[in-house]
Design brief:
alpha/beta; Rossmann fold; GMP Synthetase, Chain A, domain 3
């Protein structure tokens, strides 16, 4: 095993005990035989020239395009600032606060290249939430987008461990304390930190669909191994691809899709200078020339009418060739709506922050309606009962996964629930058919058991979304003295629709005609909006609160 380069052992010392660690599988693909010493940024960026990518565009925005060689020079300069000016050492945690931008991508890469631990945070987090992350991760430095300083400064006032904040994207290179200004004073070669593959690259804080977030640990080897699975065998991005999407770089779905995986393929990423709305995103698909898009099902559904209108106006579809949906269950109604609008069969997948990225998926040519897909090459998966015993095909059970990545919570007793006997249990209920396709049912804690029947909330949501009055919906199980639970739906109506008793009956009849009648929602509540995380995931636990 290669020697660690991380002299600060804070995260290493808080990894799970061996008995609670996942079994990591590198025997399932020859390309998973990675060297013991590796630095993911050295492999993906410093060696881009070896792969012929040096002069290809890597990072794009409306006002700037950086080639791989130019980005590498800037990352190297920031690395020098971290070590020479800020006196950080390998293994130190660095909190990153910023939206999706070239500046955020560069500082993330520099932190990992320097052998430090990147702790990226969602831009919408407030001081208390940032304080919880600071308390757990104990970062010694924060790199913050100049527009997002207020909440971080409030958090810093309560967190003496966070000694310094340095701004980036300041727009003022004359400000001598900004990262851009300090980096401009650096030049020359500066070697990447010689990290072991098992050294820590990042802490990924879960996005909070179930309440208190956890810190998932990922190593340099984890991220490079992930590149050799879903991106190589299912996504199949090309060097001429332009990637765009809404998932934040602080979310592993976004970090993989919007930075790490494009770099592995030699592709480029487009970061807009305006917030994504469904209408803006649809227009930017034409403006940017994007060929790959990542976003959540809700966004695809909201974009569909704009894409349809732009197609008619311009006389041509957008340049897209791949549309990736993940982050939450993809209703078939949304898949068909998007296909009708764009002509593209969506690439669905399920992954987990704890596993870094997608492990069950299907390429568009292999789609089976209603199924997410098959296990991604490099992983193995099965459906098990409460005792971890595999259930017969066609039977609903809990998903268990193994592969080259796995859950490693930092200092968290919930590790023992996620990893059992070396298998990762993401908390999803599935069934598998005879052809190996996996059909998502629900989060295991969202399975509704009503009068002895199992009802998956996503199935009911898909049925409701097929009704022309419904814009969005969320379904939960509500405690009931007679039935144990009843199915309750929260529905956001399209403009012009009246949420009255007649519509409730119409929706109930619609569901009864679409799926097994016992699955219909006995209660329907009309709401203005649904609670979602910044990544678009529905927060059902908030719908369950009185």
């Amino acid at each position: 095993m290669a020697p660690t380069a991380q002299t600060d052992r804070f995260v290493h010392d808080r990894l799970p005990v061996d008995a609670d660690m996942p079994a990591l599988r590198f025997d399932l693909l020859p390309e998973l035989q990675l060297p013991e010493q590796l630095n993911l940024v050295h492999e993906l960026l410093d060696r881009a020239g070896d792969k012929g990518f040096a002069e290809r565009p890597m990072l794009r925005s409306p006002g700037l395009t950086l080639t791989y060689a130019q980005a590498a020079a800037r990352v190297c300069a920031i690395h020098q600032v971290l070590v020479q000016d800020l006196a950080l050492e390998p293994g130190n945690r660095v909190l990153l606060r910023g939206g999706n931008s070239i500046g955020m991508a560069l500082v993330w890469l520099a932190v990992a290249r320097a052998g430090m631990v990147a702790v990226a945070t969602m831009p919408l987090l407030r001081a208390k939430e940032l304080g919880d992350i600071i308390d757990k991760a104990q970062p010694v430095l924060a790199l913050c987008d100049a527009k997002l300083m207020d909440e971080l400064q409030l958090a810093q006032a309560q967190a003496p461990v966070l000694r310094r904040i340095v701004v980036f994207n300041s727009g003022d290179v004359e400000a001598t304390t900004s990262m851009e200004a300090m980096a401009l004073r650096k030049s020359g070669r500066f070697d990447a930190c010689p990290t072991a593959g098992t050294d820590i690259a990042m802490l990924a804080f879960t996005s909070g669909t179930t309440g208190k977030p956890k810190a998932a640990v990922h190593t340099h080897r984890d991220l490079l191994a992930a590149c050799e699975t879903w991106p190589r065998h299912v996504l199949r991005a090309r060097a001429d691809d332009i990637v765009m999407g809404s998932p934040p770089l602080a979310f592993t779905f976004g970090l993989g899709g919007m930075l790490v995986f494009p770099m592995w393929a030699g592709a480029s990423v487009f970061f807009p200078d305006i917030p994504y709305t469904p209408q803006a995103m649809a227009q930017l698909m034409y403006v940017s020339g994007a060929t790959i898009c990542y976003t959540a099902p809700t966004f695809y559904r909201q974009m569909a009418p704009f894409i349809k209108a732009l197609h008619a106006e311009r006389g041509a579809p957008p340049p897209l060739r791949i549309c990736v949906s993940a982050g939450e269950a993809l209703p078939d109604a949304t898949r068909q709506l998007w296909k009708e609008a764009s002509g593209i069969e969506m690439l669905d997948g399920i992954g987990a922050t704890e596993m870094f990225h997608i492990f069950v998926s299907a390429a568009p040519q292999d789609v089976r309606r209603g199924a997410i897909g098959k296990v991604v090459p490099g992983y193995v998966a099965k459906v098990v009962d409460d005792n971890g015993v595999e259930v017969p095909l066609g039977t609903v059970g809990k998903l268990a996964v193994q592969g080259p990545t796995g859950c490693k919570y930092m200092d968290d007793p919930r590790q023992a629930a996620y990893v059992q006997n070396g298998w990762n249990h993401p908390g999803d209920a599935f069934l598998q058919d005879a052809d190996g396709y996996f059909f998502y049912q629900a989060r295991t804690d969202d399975m509704i058991i009503t009068a002895g029947y199992n009802v998956g909330a996503p199935e009911v949501e898909d049925a409701l979304l097929r009704h022309p009055a419904i814009a969005e919906c969320g379904v939960i199980g509500k405690p009931d003295a007679e039935r144990g639970m009843v199915v309750k739906a929260f529905c956001v109506l399209k403009s012009g629709q009246a949420g009255d008793a007649a519509l409730v009956r119409a929706l109930q009849d619609h569901v009864k005609a679409s799926i097994a009648p016992y699955k219909y929602p006995r209660e329907i509540e009309f709401v203005q909006s649904l609670p979602r995380t910044e990544t678009g995931k529905l927060q059902r636990f908030r719908l369950k609160q009185p």
